[in-house]
Amino acid sequence: MKALLFGNEAIARGAYEGGVQVATGYPGTPSSEILENISAYKEIYSEWSTNEKVAMDVAIGAAYAGRRAIVTMKSVGMNVAADSIFYVVYTGLEAGLVIVTADDPGMFSSQNEQDNRHYAKMAKMPLLEPADSQEAKDLVILGLEVSEKFDTPVLLRTTMRISHSKSAVKLGERIEVGSEAKPFVRNPHKYVCTALWARARHPVVEQRMKQLAEYAETFPYNRLELRDRSLGIVSSGAVYQYAREVFPEASFLKLTMTYPLPRQLVRRFAEEVARVIVIEELDPFLEEEISLMGIRTPGKAIFPPVGELLPHTIEERAIEAGLLPNARAIATHHVTPLNLPERSPVLCPGCPHRSVFYVLKKLNVVVTGDIGCYNLGALPPFSATHTMGCMGASIGVAHGLDKAGIPDEFVAVIGDSTFFHAGIPPLLNIVHNKGKSTVILLDNRTTAMTGHQDHPGTNTTLMGEETEEVGLEPLVRAMGVKEVRVVDPWNLDEVERGIRNCLDHDGPAVLIVSGPCVFVGAERGPAYEVDSDMCNGCGLCFRLGCPAIVQSEEMDLKRKRPKAEIDKVLCFGCDLCAQLCPCDAIRANDDTS
Amino acid sequence: MEGFNFLLAGVGGQGTVLASDVLAEVGMEAGYDVKKSDVLGLAVRGGSVVSHIRWGETVHSPVITEGQVDYLVGFEMLEGLRWLKQLKPQGTVVVNRQRIPPVSVISGEAIYPSDQEIIDALSMTTKHYYLIPGLMLAQKLGNAKVVNLILLGSLSVLLKISAGIWEGAINRTVPTNLVDLNLKAFHAGRSAMKEIRNS
């Protein structure tokens, strides 16, 4: 049976068919759907772990216990998991372990454009790169086998275009492996990475890489495609697909196991064709490896190392480099350039983050931000966030501002899921080191930005079981913070008073702004409406950046400014605009449904 | 076998991805090799959403090369216009006659193009453009969210694939309790396009 599957669905299917028994991860675009799809297979235990490092350790524990395991994360999530990845390469495992990294060339939803293929080389483990959904599924199953055969974790690297594209996949049956738990294998010389014993493991790792390099020569998904011999292209992943369309006649070396490199295969290809070029997205990973063999392979001299390498760019750069005749340039017809307004994502109507950023802008404080929807507070109309680096950075950076002694008032802003992920150690650090920062916890009861996954502060697991809900307030108090306040996000005065009190407190202070995301249980109220006779066009409500509040066609004649109007379909009835309106022109309309 | 490239462009929350899933299923059922690619950005609502769907004998890239779109479906007018440059010469545009102003427009920093500007841009690009009153038709059916299936219905009139194949794909793709509503929307979109083509 064939089905059209996203790359992420296909990876989940591969985990199912490949007999995976434990699957872990932390949400992160473009990886999140892998684990969500795995959770639909009841044969597999799956969980959202608190962060990628925890997820990694859990999957390693399962693989040590002889159960096939998979762990999923986005590109930058691998930085968090890295500490654990490096030790499992030394120990090896008792059952297959596949690590999935979903990279984000083009930075559609990431803070950088890192190329995680380097992790395979640095940690010393095999690297597989699927070029469509069928390969994504197959490589999970094959990856588990390679993992067991060579006693190593295997890195499966997708990119957004593989994860979020659909193509046809042949579905198979599940292989049951190791369905009964065996007693734990007590082998401390292998599994205890104390320097004394780990030292003996390093040569094992080096030897294993040599064996893997030999295996790569016969890896079934590395493929020579010989056509016109004047040009030979080495490529992998989604870019292979683009390049095939741009160069339909050229010969290809389609690499799928890209580390360690199958050197003999590359050499054979180079001998078959007059000229070899590498087409790859982001860093010159293959190009450097091939250049080391003494084969001249221009890659980044032609194709940019920045952004997605889409078919159009490949074609343009190939023409510039003389690889394609100029006549092939498609005559693009130019449309009258209308100046089209940008459409940035916005906080939803009814979002509990809106009041906080409205107040932060009003108070004109320095804000250290973090990863989540609330990063939209950096954009107009708020423009209220001044730093944002990675998960959990807000709190440590704020403490740095504190100890540096800036004259400005400042706060750190971090979401609930992000706080559980990486915010606890830096808050403990503030308490221990006598810091005086204010930390605002935006507790919207979900991991909103990645698609509303549960976390330790919610009462449901990924598999749908009811569980202990970790309360932020008792947690923060237990960490030694004395000044802790909880406020209602839909009460502007309360939010402002709460922030003011925390800023005035002489010591660490935490403000928990507690209200659910509109997608996970916030209750929709009656839609509001503007009494146009009372609206004077002051525009204060527009500063809330609510998509439901639009400019009316009616102008206020005195101010010569458009009056406000509320889109009844979009309005969530949160009341913030009514609290703000100085003319009392905005009211709930209880007649609307 | 002749191939087709479809670009579906809308605003988060409009059901663009579901529509692209249906379109991909229709292509597969009709015997094409099919690939599709979604660009969603953040999972929050209100941003631009774009889906590429490709039907062909063998499809390598899930992404359509610039200027190679056969059918552009705009789920609201601004997003339709944004991708006009991707259209093949004299390609086809189906646009929902709806305006969803972005925040830059609401805050007064930018201006949403006027109806005349929109029609001028369309007519200068291609003879084959159709404006569908999607939101109005959806509201008639009692659910503003079925604009996506109305637009697919309108598009379906332009393709030589039987309505049965479309209905089957809708059946398999949308949630069971919403199949009837979505089929109604699909047929409302078909009728609207037939009327436009006959007038």
Plain-language structure description:
The complex is a heterodimer of chains A (593) and B (199). With 593 residues, chain A is of the alpha/beta class. Chain A has four domains: 2-216, Rossmann fold (3-Layer(aba) Sandwich), CATH 3.40.50.970; 223-328, Rossmann fold (3-Layer(aba) Sandwich); 354-514, Rossmann fold (3-Layer(aba) Sandwich), CATH 3.40.50; 528-588, Alpha-Beta Plaits, CATH 3.30.70.20. Helices cover 34% and strands 18% of the residues of chain A. Chain A is built from 19 helices and 22 strands. Chain A has a seven-stranded mixed β-sheet with strand order 3-2-4-5-7-6-12, sandwiched between helices. In chain A, helix 6 (133-150) links the parallel strand 6 (127-128) and strand 7 (154-159). In chain A, helix 1 crosses helix 2 and helix 14 packs across helix 18 (492-504). The longest helix of chain A is centred in the middle third of the chain and has 22 residues, at 195-216. The model of chain A has no long low-confidence stretch (mean pLDDT 95). Chain B is of the alpha/beta class. Chain B has one domain (4-198): Pyruvate-ferredoxin oxidoreductase, PFOR, domain III (Pyruvate-ferredoxin Oxidoreductase, domain 3, 3-Layer(aba) Sandwich). Chain B is 42% helix and 22% strand. Chain B has helices spanning 16-29, 77-82, 103-106, 115-125, 134-140, 147-156, 163-173, 179-198, and strands at residues 4-11, 33-39, 48-56, 69-74, 87-96, 129-132. Chain B has a six-stranded mixed β-sheet with strand order 2-3-1-4-5-6, sandwiched between helices. In chain B, a hairpin with an 8-residue loop joins strand 2 (33-39) and strand 3 (48-56). The mean pLDDT of chain B is 94. At the A-B interface, strand 8, helix 10, helix 13 and strand 20 of A face helix 1, strand 2, helix 2, helix 3 and helix 4 of B.
